[in-house]
Amino acid sequence: MYILEGNIGAGKSTFLNKIKDYIPELEILTEPVNNWTNQIFGQSLLENFYKDTSRWAYTLENLAMIHRVKDHIEIQNSKNENIVIERSIYSGHYCFSKNSYKNGHLTEIEWEIYSKWADFLLKSCNTPKGFIYLKADAQTCMTRIKKRNRLSEKKITLSYVKQIEDWHEKFLIKKEDIHESLINVPVLTLDCNKDFLEDESLLKEHMNNVREFILRPQIFKKTQEKTAFFE
To answer: Would 230 be classed as within a structural domain?
Structure first.
């Protein structure tokens, strides 16, 4: 199992659709965002979160964890090792939930309960074979968020996107305060500040890196040790 990570607006869903076209031998599983963006519960929990973060942070983070764990368990039972999933229990915990806690949107007891649950899951779930990190700065992500104009994202601020960017860097690049099982998991970092949809050569370069990273990991590692792509 490989996990595609990146900030809000980094281009994850678009990137996964391109993987389907360029590397059809890989199985793709997208993030179950409909479960917290649409009116499944009579309201959009994500929209509620951005409007009143302190009220809805614990609810949203627990719902997201439930669905991500469900996907993780299903993938663990799959015979196909070359599955790429969008986001994970790891970024949910180390980026989004931790950000809510550090900003005071989760109480101490809420964080304690959530952390115990997350710690159990991190120990119980199979470690991913690698992370693919779509790296884009906060301003670029914010421009894309405004362009796609989703109702549930109307209240997102640049400062929030910058905070999530910083947590991704700590999690995937610096590997600070993460579970020991993740320390040595390789990370393919792709610069996505440029729009790969408008640059065919850049898109092909990204796809070639993904192909080697997943399908030829030993060759990839040797060829990338001298570059900044392999962290």
So the answer is: no
